[in-house]
């Protein structure tokens, strides 16, 4: 008689677990509807970066306040990977040139930028009359 009640209890627990499993709502994994809709403010930015000698390959372009960015190709051209909105700021930087910030307005879709050279001072070691002598003995 005890085996009959244990068997019934086990069946009852099994039915309760299956009922609990299937009665919980199941949510699909989807993107937030607000972030996936494209508004009229989303702007795709393309452009070309040059200096006085021609196109500049390898210029870094970063959205201010984020880690999203792009690099210019061999022809100095780029397409920013993220849609931007009015008021966003792109930072253009390249070694030996002044860093430039461009604010995006509602009409900007193409940026034609001329980078200017940054003045770099090179400090040399002071010359001495006394030659360097190693402390190491051979």
TrEMBL record:
<dbReference type="Pfam" id="PF13715">
    <property type="entry name" value="CarbopepD_reg_2"/>
</dbReference>
<protein>
    <submittedName>
        <fullName>Carboxypeptidase-like regulatory domain-containing protein</fullName>
    </submittedName>
</protein>
<feature type="signal peptide">
    <location>
        <begin position="1"/>
        <end position="28"/>
    </location>
</feature>
<keyword id="KW-0732">Signal</keyword>
<dbReference type="InterPro" id="IPR008969">
    <property type="entry name" value="CarboxyPept-like_regulatory"/>
</dbReference>
